[in-house]
Amino acid sequence: MKNILFLIALFIFNIVLAQNDSKAENLLNKVSEKIDNAKSYQIDFTYTLENTLEGINQDSKGTIIIENDNYLLNFMGINQICDSEYIYTIVEENEEVLISSIGNEDEQTIKPSQLLKFYRNGYLLLWDKIEISYEERIQFLKLIPIDSYSETSYLLLGINVSENNISKLIEIGKNKTKTILKVDSIIYNPEIKDNIFVFNKNEYKNYYIENL
With a threshold of 0.85, does the pTM exceed it? Predict the structure, then answer.
């Protein structure tokens, strides 16, 4: 779950470093302007995990709705609600709910309030390859972690240049694992139902509920 939030966070950011490629910065500024003008987002995505050494190739669909410090994530049979103070992880298969305070999350956990700003520092940003298909033109930017202890070797961020939307994120780990987050759709300022970010304990009377 932390890994997917890490990737989702990378969809919503603006990186500014003095040594960055100016073309890459200008393109991200256009993307960031569009994102910053929205109050909420809904992202439908496909998450792929690949490791050729271990013979792993898995695809999973997911959806996340974000508004201010709140979010609702549906991924791999797990629903996660954040009300800006607590995170409620609901595992229907096991009939259990795990409740944790945002303040108790470790440093690698992406807080909702940081989703727009978390990755504005910490990477060298470079212009990279381009992919052209009948439907879209995707310009990739290469993000190299400045922290030499990072478990990530580099990231490739693909941007649909005709719409200034992020289309794909590829993370290459130092352990040769590749994770791909492909955006199937982004909706800016979607209609959000009342209480969508509120955990109602009465709906889970038969569930085991644990406060972490």
Answer: no
Question: Mean pLDDT in runs of 10 for the chain (212 residues)?
Answer: 63 49 81 82 89 74 88 90 91 92 57 46 82 85 83 87 87 86 90 91 90 80
DSSP per-residue string spanning 78-144: EEEEE-SSEEEEEETTTTEEEEEEGGGS-TTSPPGGGTTTTTSSSEEEEEEEEEE-SS-EEEEEEEE
Cα 140 to Cα 4, 34, 85, 167: the distances in Å are 20, 18, 35, 10
The residue segments making up the domain with residue 81 are: 2-211
Q: Which of 54, 50, 51, 71 is nearest to 8 (CA)?
A: 71
Domain count, the chain: 1
Question: Residue 11 is part of a domain; what is its CATH number?
Answer: 2.50.20.10
Q: List Cβ neighbours of 103 (8 Å cut-off, separation of 6 or more).
A: none
Residue 18 class from Cβ within 10 Å (0-12 exposed, 13-18 middle, 19+ buried)?
A: exposed
SS3 for 51?
Answer: strand
Radius of gyration of the chain (CA): 18
Tens digit of each residue's pLDDT (9 = 90 or more) over 72-121:
999 888 899 998 889 999 999 899 999 998 765 545 444 544 444 444 56
